[in-house]
Amino acid sequence: MDAYLIYILHDESGKSSFKIDGELYKYLIKVRRHEVGDALSFRNKDEIKTLHNYKIATIDNRSLVVEFISSSVKETKSKKSLHVAWCIIDTKSVEKVLPSLCEIGVEKISFIGCDRSQRNFKLDFKRFDRILEASMQQCGRTSFIEFNTYKNLKDFLFDFPQTKVFDFCDNVLKDGANFETVLIGCEGGFSKSEKEFLSKQEIFALDTPMVLRSESAVMAVSSKILL
After folding, report:
1. Over the stretch 2-52, which tens digit does the pLDDT of each residue have?
2. Is the pTM of this model over 0.85?
3. Residue 142: is it exposed, middle or buried by C-beta count within 10 angstroms (0-12/13-18/19+)?
4. What is the distance between the alpha carbons of residues 36 and 65, in angstroms, rounded to a whole number?
5. How far apart are CA 185 and CA 218, in angstroms?
6. Domains in the chain, please, with CATH?
């Protein structure tokens, strides 16, 4: 916990006062060097849109106590909405880019079992949420990315028929594109049968001669659409 936090997620946020100890205490006092009287901002996951303002009332060698000042509804989110459909890849690669996807404002990620997805990867959404918590506190975002899974492309496109597809083609994604749902393949891209199945969808590429890894493609496409 060495990055500056815009706010702190705490289960007791909203109470008139509460005690902080452990790693958070060390961060606030040893790293950030807060003192008595300093103001801190907190949110509670159960009501995350509400920002609670506190001041440090007391500090001892192992803990501190904060006292409530005020609360207000203050939501921070992207101006655009993007749903990423992502063919399953190594979860370690997903975890590396999750904080960045959170920061740029991706709203939802659907993980899809594709022909070239390795079947031994297990998606741990609870771990993903813990990663998001750290990112949200640093960037100020007030909503978690929503996660779900689909067995195959057919099932996903049945629910989201207007999905745009990132793949090799001559249709370069233009500035200002406003996609709501975009499909990104796994390592090795889509299989021949998947390409045939996706041929009726709108397909686009990025203006680069480089072959992007799946996680790089997710980051590049999401950034171009949302930022």
Report:
1. 678 999 999 999 999 999 999 999 999 999 999 999 999 999 999 999 999
2. yes
3. middle
4. 9
5. 9
6. 8-73 (2.40.240.20), 83-226 (3.40.1280.10)
